[in-house]
Amino acid sequence: MAATHRLALLTALVTAAAATLTAATATAAPERAAACNGYVGLTFDDGPSGNTTRLLDALRQSGLRATMFNQGQYAAANPSLVRSQVAAGMWVGNHSYTHPHLTRLSQAQIDSEISRTQLALANAGGGTPKLFRPPYGETNATVKSIAARHGLTEIIWQVDSQDWNGASTDAIVQAAGRLTNGQIILMHDWSANTLAAVPRIAQGLTARGLCAGMISPQTGRAVAPG
Predict the structure, then answer these.
(1) 3-class SS string, 102-122
(2) Partner of 72 for a Cys bridge, out of 107, 117, 121, 208, CB 3.0 to 4.6 A?
(3) Which residues are catalytic?
C-alpha cells in the first residue's frame, strides 16, 4: 500500500509540474509578442564580405534578424557565406551583380544585373529573393519594371545610417534611434562601425518596444516575421 501511495503521489506531482510549465509557456509567448509594439527593417548592403561572419555573430548575439542585400558577384565568390546568412535566420535580397548605376544602363544590361544575381543567390543557397535594392538607391520606371518581371519588390529606405560615408558608431546608433514602426534603415555589411553599433541598436529598439522584422514584398514595409 505504501508503494502504491508513493506512486500516486509522484504521479500527482509530475502532473502538477507539467501543468505549471504549460501555463508558464502559454503566458510567456503573448508577453514576448506584446513586447513588440512595432517592427523595423534592418538592412545590410554589399555582402557577403570578409566581415559577414562577425556581423552575423553580432546579430545573433543581440537577437536580431536582418535583410542582407547581396551583390551577385560576391555571392558567387562566397556561397558559403550566403548559406551562413540563411542559417543565422537572415533574409537574402538582390543588390545587383556588380553595383552599377542602373539608371545609366540599357534594359538588357539592367536585366542581366538582376537576373544573374537571382541565379547566383539561388545557387549559393539563398533561395529565390523577393526583394531588390538598386545600388545607390537609384531607380526609375524601367528599373522597377525589370525588377518586377523577376518577381522582385524594390526596397529603398527611410533612414540612412551614413555608415558608407564614415559615420561613427554613435551616429549609426542615433540613426537607428529614429526608426519608427514599418521603417527601414540602410547599413552595410562591410562597415566596422556598424558592426560595433549592433548591440546598442538592439538595446535601443528594445527600450522603445520595437523588434527587428522582415520586409514585406507586398507592402515594402517591415512587419512581424512570417
Answers:
(1) HHHCCHHHHHHHHHHHHHHHH
(2) 117
(3) 45, 188
